[in-house]
Structures are given as structure tokens and as C-alpha cells.
Amino acid sequence: MDTRLAVRARGITKCFGDVVALDGVDLDVARGQIHGLVGPNGAGKTTLLGLLLGLAVADGGRLEILGTPVQRALTAPDGVAGFVDGPGLYPSLTARQNLTALVALRGRDAGTAGVDDVLDQVGLTDVADDQTRGFSLGMRQRLGLAAALITKPRLLVLDEPANGLDPAGKKHVHGVLTRLAADGTSVVLSSHRMDDLQALCSEVTILATGRVVFSGPLSKLAAENRELDYRLLTSDPQAARRLAGDAAGIRIVDDTGARHDAEALVVRALVPALDELVVQLVHAGIALRELAPVVSPLEAAFLALTEPKETGR
Ligand SMILES: Nc1ncnc2c1ncn2[C@@H]1O[C@H](COP(=O)(O)OP(=O)(O)OP(=O)(O)O)[C@@H](O)[C@H]1O
């Protein structure tokens, strides 16, 4: 048992009939860490989050949550809160009534945060007395977060928490999660958005078809990625293309992106070869007006790790 870890999973398996949703998954989440779970559709993220929330029981493996081994029973482990597949709310009740009902359900002895306090934390004070029936997806997500916060969790488990949030809402929720983590709460969240993960998480676990293909710091994920496609805009596109064609370690790629631009040059290269190309362009009197990776290094690494391998047929 490791008390520094909020989650310690070893060799977790979970099947639904013939479908192997989780296939020997290991996961370590440190206390006070925001840990991202990513992977293509059907990779097993929701299944794993469901196990952490006690919504399902693993078929095999060992799971410790907040230092306590999880028993083979469908109960939410002590100190854990969150939701998968959207929060469960009573549509005919207001936001405040939903939270008050939750407090009542937990009983007088359970430590809870104040309803007004959590509504304020997630930015729903102005609509606290509106029926949740009329809430947008983003507002429901925020209320779901409030419902989790009211239980004062030590481990918060969230499935796509930024779903439906506008940019201001996302920033707000990111602020809430970052403050919670700074106060020692661990957060495990799934997301398809690399920019959200980069903004929030110190570590990520990438799942692909039920297996862990990467787990560790985001910086390591970026560093592990090798060649990337870069888009260059220069003062002399033809001369730049000729130079790039002759440069060592540089491969010219067709620009088929959404921002297709005949003037743009897209090259595939390692960073040192790209550096050398930039130096050559400048020496040749060609001005470099724009240089950026076509997709972010993290997204490129994610795609490289999760895309099905070519079978060669
Ligand atoms: N209750 C269930 N009954 C049958 N199969 C299930 C069930 N829940 C999940 N699965 C299957 O298990 C696999 C993993 O599903 P899961 O929902 O965990 O993936 P996910 O990574 O959350 O996907 P997404 O990004 O689409 O939400 C999928 O093949 C899915 O069809």
C-alpha cells in the first residue's frame, strides 16, 4: 500500500461479454495531482473512471484508492466523487435544490461543503434558483462539478469535464480544479482535448484498446515524439522550396491541411534539421514570416501512439 498515491492500479482487467474494455491496466495517480486520461473512442477511459467511482467492479487486478484496497462491491470508495457520462441531476429541481437534496441524502454526519459556496465556486450563483431542466450542457457540467465538490472529495473523477463549456466557463473550471489540486485533492479526468490536458495536467495516461501505451509527465510525451510536420511562410516561396528540397534531413510534404495555402511550405523534420534549414533560408536572404508545427507536439505523439499500425497488406 502506498499512501502517497491517490490511485494505485495494477493489472486491471474488465470485459463486457467478448469485449475486453481494460486489458492489464496499471495507473498511479499521486496525491494533489491532476492526471489526464486520453485515448481514442472505445479505448476504455470511461470504464476505468467507472471503476474509480465504484460504479463497476474490475474482473481482475488490484486497485487501491486513497490507500485502501477496493473491495469487490459496488460502492463509491470513501473520499471519491465525480461523474461519468454526464452528471445525474433532477430536472424539475433548481440547482440549489439538487445540491440540498444531495446533502440530505448523505446524512447529517457526512462532512459537506456549503451549497452557496460550491455554487459560487463553479460560477452558478446567478442561476441557483432556476430549474436545471433548462440548463445548457455547460451549466449541467458545472452543476455536476458542484455536486462532487459538496462532498469535499480527496479524489475527484471527471469524464470530459470541459464538455459544452464556453472558453470563459472552461477557464473558470480549470481554475477550480487547479486550486483543488493545490490544496491536495487528486483529480483524474478524461479528455479528448490536448490543449485542455496541457493546460491542466502534470501527467497523462494514454489508453488504446484497453491498454496503457503511455503514462507519465506531459513533457516526456512531447520529448518522445520525433519527426514533426512544420509549416513555413517565407518572403520567397519558390526559392525556399528549392532550398528545402536540397537540405539534409528535410522532407517536403504536401500541404493538404485545412489552412491549405499555395505559398506555404510544409516540411517533415527533426528539430536540428529544421534549425539548419532556417539558418540557410536567412543566409540566402529569404525572410521567415511564420513557422509552426502543423499539429502540436503532444497531439502528434498521441496520434503516433494510438493510430492502428499498418498491417502491410
Ligand atoms: N456496459 C457496457 N456493455 C458492453 N460494452 C461496453 C460497456 N461499456 C463499455 N463497453 C465497451 O468497452 C469498450 C471501452 O468503452 P469505454 O466507454 O470505456 O471507452 P472510452 O475510452 O470511454 O470511449 P469514448 O471516448 O468513446 O467515451 C468499448 O468497446 C465499449 O463498447
TrEMBL record:
Q: Which GO terms describe its molecular function?
A: ATP binding; ATP hydrolysis activity
Cite the Pfam families for this sequence.
ABC_tran
Record's keyword terms, sorted = ATP-binding, Nucleotide-binding, Transport
Q: Which InterPro entries match?
A: AAA+_ATPase, ABC_transporter-like_ATP-bd, ABC_transporter-like_CS, P-loop_NTPase
Location of the ABC transporter domain: 7-234
Has the keyword Nucleotide-binding been applied to this entry?
yes
Q: Do the record's keywords include tRNA-binding?
A: no
Q: Return the SMART domains for the record.
A: AAA (SM00382)
* Family affiliation: Belongs to the ABC transporter superfamily.
UniProt-recorded name of the protein: ABC transporter
Q: Which organism is it from?
A: Streptomyces diastatochromogenes
